[in-house]
Write a structure and sequence with these properties.
The chain is 47% helix and 14% strand. The chain is built from 40 helices and 29 strands. The protein has a seven-stranded antiparallel β-sheet with strand order 9-8-7-6-12-11-10, sandwiched between helices. Strands 16-15-14-13-19-18-17 form a seven-stranded antiparallel β-sheet. The chain is globular. Residues 520-707 form the Rab-GAP TBC domain. May act as a GTPase-activating protein for Rab family protein(s).
Length: 1158
């Protein structure tokens, strides 16, 4: 690889290096001890030294030196091996080879050797070569950032180590890895950081001690760069209970960006699947690579910067220069090309931006390449303007790809030209009314929509064709005054601007237009410019008839969304004349209903009605619809949904901006969440609901031009203007009053219309006059004092705070679930919290590695808190094995299946946390009768089914005799007859039975056998195992006799053949004294010849029979009433949960759990 030139003394170098090739200016050397067959003593010593050194300190075996004649100082400029200890270099191989260094030598001979002879000064030769090498390094560095495949051998080696060290399933894909230190207190541990699609892992082996850390991305609550007393820059990862610091990275910026990307992608995929729409390349997590993450970050910045649709995919970013006629020079910047756009952004922020929808492009042509105009192309648009780009690399391929996409866009959305006017048969989409030099500009009116408007009116005569404010102005009479003259001045300024910078969506967007927007857009141009700035005009032109069809499909349908819309219609600007009649209300209803029909994921959210009302005042109905689409789907992403995640993220960003720009206010108000809650409506309604309308529309002007940045900086300006009042406020209510009074007295002196009050008019009944603030002054202050935030900074802050907001929702869900469950169970709250974490982690592990990924049906943030996380039968079986006290060896899995069937009362194959914990509570803390009742229910339908995996046990065959006397031999030789006790027991149970409790169905003999088998398995390996076996044998025989008594009394002496197959003698001698002949519950002592088949009626026992019988044996009572420790189970579960899942996934595919009867 190429190295940054560094000086080497030849005198010392010759002791360790041997020259292989040389020329006038370059020397190729081999290190002694490498590539020698036998080798001398010196070579062996050098080779041994290199071999014992750590890989980070080894020297490359080959190098090339730049030789300057007449000097004893050489510069090594190329090396054949990775120098891991270097600062900024990028490796292309893991080992040294002669072929590799020869490639660099050949490049020098072919490209530099002949050129150097023209130089007279040796210093010029050295400078020229060093500059070339540095350029090569820069080019390699930029390409290698996105080319992980350039080091496949090294990555493959890291992957093998990652799999061996952490033993994840194959589905856990490694994305990248880094060498770093992990700090444990004040002690650093050098090791390797592995970043996979679902986990952050660290491994260290130092002085015989092995350290492994595994942190799921979904557990990370905060990811930040910080510093400690030892290091100035570290990456801190905060989870629920711990903080971990990582440092000593070669490139900390890169590592932090990759971490942020992985955490963001994983958290949104698993916790915010309500609205998360991943890029197509990231839909399958196992396919995510480091290059994908970098491309995604660049793509998101591109869409946010130009406020383009979410599905717009970036194809290329190229350095170039654009001819800007207003400055009469080429402006340096970057070209961005995507599916349907060509965009340009100057390197100087705000100097010049251009958005060219391919729908507006007529041609893309290459010009002649000259020294003044290197590699130029011309992009011509339909408004008779042309954009000249120069200094484009790989121009031919760029033009070819652009022409291909241009053809596809025009094929998908044919352009409709206006033939109704006789100005020009090829008039552009934006028609022209004013001419300037050679350019023709439109009057902001959509021709393609004009042609379809008449047909739209015929199909949908109810659509309102005009904006509501012009209608009101025509119907009323207003005498011209100074306000109208100021409006005319604004219109004149804007027309002058259109002449110089363009008036279509393809206009040059500069600092000058930002100043015009801050002054306030004229009423007559407001709706049109909103369409251009948001690029809603492109959607409008590309979808003729779309809105009308939506209105037809959606109107007349009644659902919850339409009911919410109807409820809010008359609350939308009720003080404005436009919405005091059916015309405005009907238009608002149609737009909101049509959008809810278009985007059911969002549907309708409060505050959409206020925003849409204002859009309808300045834009036609169809235009207002597309403006609403632009705001909801790309300008305010994730704002309008069930949890308003986007708004909460921006609130959190706003808090950080307050700390940065208004530190005194932040210090005084210890809890900034109060300000965040107050300012939430600022973001959701763009100040429309808390500021007089004529002032708030100026805020909306800035929002459509600058995006969310305008709301952030205006919010900061409002807080700064009220800092003194806020610092003196005693509580949140007083702070709210201070801000509300200020906002209600913001006026717009330039507004030509009559003033319209805000929703906070009830705050304006002041005892003394309150000072008035002009909106133009407030906006100007916001740009001057807080306008330095770039889109890149805002997007970084959003990514950072999205992690916190999503984890905050998770904590809220957890606390609400625990609050509901704690009163209903006896498990301690801290143990419940551990159980919840295990339950959620089990769900997440299935999301990580199982196909198909189950999170969509199982995790639903819109459901009640207790039902947001649910698990299926397989996941329940894992948890049952980890935390249940009723472990029955091989029988445990079968018992888990039956428990799941019992808990799945709604038959959807999923159970929530509350059901899971309620069952565990009975097992750990229930009374004996509650535990026996649960066991009883686990052995009758629906828990026990005909197709139960254990139903084919030998126990189903004829096995037991109930015809022998209930007499058992005792150790002292006495015999106890239980007949009298049995009769009295049945009478007592019948008498004392609670009639209010729903009676459980009786248990058949087959079910009873399974019940006994479960008990037998539960007693295995218990310290009192022998006593328990003897006791259960006694009880089982007693219950068999009870069942026989009930059978005979119900059949009145008649015999039935129905169950005869399942009742068979199995005599046991007093010495055996056990129902089961050995410790295997599947093998039963039976002798068909000894006991002939008997035809009998239905054999059944009830829960009361079983409970009463068990109470006769003290050892059984002790077993079910002994205290059980859940804490030890939870500790083991936390340790073994991952390994159990990995073991289960590594086994050969097992048949699915039998849930066919669910």
């Amino acid at each position: 690889m190429w190295l940054k030139p560094e000086e080497v003394l030849l005198k010392n170098a010759l002791k360790l290096w041997v020259t292989q090739k040389s020329s006038c200016y370059f020397i190729l050397q081999r290190r002694r001890g490498h590539g020698e067959g036998g080798g001398r003593l010196t070579g062996r010593l050098v080779g041994a030294l290199d071999a014992v050194l750590d890989s980070n300190a080894r020297v490359a075996p080959f190098r090339i030196l730049l030789q300057v004649p007449g000097s004893q100082v050489y510069s090594p400029i190329a090396c054949g091996e990775l120098l891991s200890g270097s600062d900024v270099y990028w490796a292309i191989a893991t080992g040294a080879t002669l072929e590799e260094i020869n490639q660099h030598w050949d490049w020098l001979e072919q490209n530099l050797l002949h050129t150097l002879s023209v130089f007279d000064n040796k210093d010029d030769i050295a400078s020229f070569v060093k500059g070339k090498v540095k350029a090569l390094i820069a080019e390699e560095t930029s390409s290698r950032l996105a080319e992980q495949e350039e080091e496949p051998e090294k990555f493959r080696d890291a992957l093998v180590k990652f799999e061996a060290r952490f033993n994840f399933p194959e589905a856990e894909k490694l994305v990248t890895y880094y060498s770093c230190c992990c700090w444990k207190g004040r002690v650093p541990r050098q090791g390797w950081l592995y970043l996979s699609i679902n986990h952050l892992c660290f491994y260290s082996f130092f002085l015989g001690k092995e350290l492994k850390l595994v942190v799921p991305w979904v557990d990370i609550q905060k990811l930040e760069r910080t510093s400690n007393v030892f290091l100035t820059d570290t990456i801190r990862i905060t989870t629920q209970n711990k903080e971990r610091d990582f440092s000593m990275f070669l490139n900390l910026d890169e590592v932090f960006k990759i971490m942020e990307q992985l955490a963001d992608v994983t958290l949104r995929r698993l916790l915010d699947n309500e609205v998360f729409d991943l890029d197509p390349g990231l839909q399958e997590p196992s396919q995510i690579t480091k290059r994908d993450l970098e491309a995604r970050a660049q793509n998101e910045f591109f869409r946010a910067f130009f406020r383009l649709p979410r599905r717009e995919k970036l194809h290329a970013v190229l350095d170039c220069s654009l001819w800007t006629p207003f400055s009469r020079c080429h402006t340096v910047g970057r070209m961005f090309t995507s599916d349907r756009y060509i965009c340009f952004a100057s390197k100087e922020d705000g100097c010049c931006n251009v958005i060219l929808p391919l729908r507006e492009v007529v041609s893309i042509e290459k010009m002649e390449d000259t020294s003044l105009l290197p590699n130029p192309i011309i992009v011509s648009i339909r408004s008779k303007m042309a954009f000249q780009f120069i200094e484009l690399k790989d121009r031919d391929n760029l033009v070819e790809s652009l022409l291909m996409r241009l053809k596809q866009v025009h094929a998908n959305h044919p352009v409709h030209y206006d033939t109704s006017r006789d100005e020009d048969m090829t008039s552009p989409v934006f028609h022209s009314t004013s001419l300037c030099s050679d350019h023709k500009f439109g009057d902001l009116e959509m021709v393609s929509s004009q042609n379809s408007e008449e047909s739209e009116k015929e199909k949908n005569p109810q659509l309102h064709p005009e904006a509501l404010i012009p209608v009101l102005q025509q119907s009323g009479s207003q005498s011209p005054d100074s306000r109208m003259s100021r409006e005319q001045i604004k219109i004149s300024l804007w027309n002058d601007h259109f002449v110089e910078y363009g008036r279509t969506v393809c206009m040059f967007r500069t600092e000058k237009i930002r100043k015009l927007v801050a002054m306030g857009i004229p009423e007559s141009l407001r709706g049109k410019l909103w369409l251009l700035f948001s690029d809603a005009v492109t959607d409008l032109a590309s979808h003729p008839g779309y809105y009308g069809n939506l209105v037809e499909e959606s109107m007349g349908k009644c659902c919850l969304v339409t009911e919410e819309i109807e409820r809010d219609l008359h609350r939308s600007l009720p003080e404005h004349p436009a919405f005091q009649n059916e015309t405005g209300i009907a238009a608002l209803r149609r737009v909101l209903t049509a959008y809810a029909h278009r985007n059911p994921k969002i549907g309708y959210c409060q505050s959409m009605n206020i925003l849409t009302s204002v859009l309808l005042l300045y834009a036609k109905e169809e235009e207002a619809f597309w403006l609403l689409v632009a705001v909801c789907e790309r300008m305010l992403p994730d704002y309008f949904n069930h949890r308003v995640i986007g708004a909460q993220v921006d609130q959190s960003v706003f808090e950080e901006l307050i700390k940065e720009h208004l530190p005194e206010l932040a210090e005084h108000m210890n809890d900034l969440s109060a300000l965040a809650s107050i300012s939430l409506s600022w973001f959701l309604t763009l100040f429309l609901s808390i500021m007089p309308l004529e002032s708030a529309v100026s805020v909306v002007d800035c929002f459509f031009y600058d995006g969310i940045k305008a709301i952030f900086q205006l919010g900061l300006a409002v807080l700064e203007a009220n800092a003194q009042g806020l610092c003196s406020s005693k509580d949140d209510g007083q702070a709210l009053m201070v801000l509300s009074r200020f906002l209600d007295h913001i006026k717009n002196e330039d507004s030509p219309g009559p003033p319209v009050g805000s929703h906070h008019a009830f705050f304006s009944d002041d005892q003394e006059p309150y000072p008035v603030t002009d909106i133009a002054d407030l906006i100007r202050d916001s740009y001057e004092k807080f306008g330095d935030q770039s889109v890149e900074q805002i997007e970084h802050l959003r990514c950072k705070h999205r992690i916190r907001v999503l984890q905050g929702h998770e904590d809220t869900t957890k606390q609400n679930v625990l609050r509901v469950v704690i009163p209903e169970v006896s498990i301690l709250p801290e143990d419940l919290e551990e159980l919840y974490d295990l339950f959620k982690r089990e769900h997440m592990m299935s999301c990580y590695w199982e196909q198909p990924r189950p999170m969509v049906p199982r995790h639903d943030p819109s459901r009640p808190y207790a039902e947001q996380y649910r698990i299926d039968a397989r996941q329940f079986a894992h948890l049952f094995q980890l935390v249940s006290p009723w472990t029955c060896g091989a029988h445990t899995e079968i018992l888990a299946e039956r428990t799941f069937r019992l808990l799945d009362d709604n038959m959807d194959h999923l159970i929530e946390f509350k059901s899971f914990v309620s069952c565990l509570d009975v097992m750990y803390n229930g009374e004996m009768n509650e535990k026996i009742k649960l066991l009883y229910r686990l052995h009758i339908p629906p828990a026990l089914t005909e197709n139960d995996r254990d139903s084919q046990s030998p126990l189903k065959n004829p096995l037991l005799s109930t015809s022998r006397p209930l007499v058992f031999g005792k150790s002292n030789g006495d015999a106890i007859d239980y007949q009298k006790q049995l009769k009295q027991m049945i009478k007592d149970l019948t008498k004392d039975k609670d009639k209010t409790e729903k009676e459980l169905p009786k248990m058949s003999q087959r079910e009873f056998i399974q019940f006994c088998k479960t008990l037998y398995s539960m007693f295995h390996e218990d310290p009192e195992e022998n006593d328990l076996y003897q006791a259960i044998a006694t009880v089982t025989t007693l219950l068999l006799q009870i069942g026989e008594v009930g059978q005979r009394s119900s059949s009145s002496g008649s015999c039935s053949q129905e169950c005869g197959e399942e009742l068979r003698a199995s005599a046991l001698s007093p010495e055996q004294d056990s129902v089961f002949a050995d410790n295997n519950p599947g093998k039963i002592t039976q002798d068909p010849q000894t006991f002939p088949q008997e035809a009998e009626g239905d054999w059944t026992v009830s829960l009361e029979h079983i409970l009463a019988s068990l109470l006769t044996e003290q050892s059984l009572v002790n077993f079910f009433e002994k205290p059980l420790d859940i804490k030890s189970k939870l500790e083991n579960a936390k340790i073994n949960q991952y390994s159990l899942k990995t073991f289960e996934m590594s086994r050969p595919s097992q048949p699915e759990l039998q849930l066919s009867n669910l």
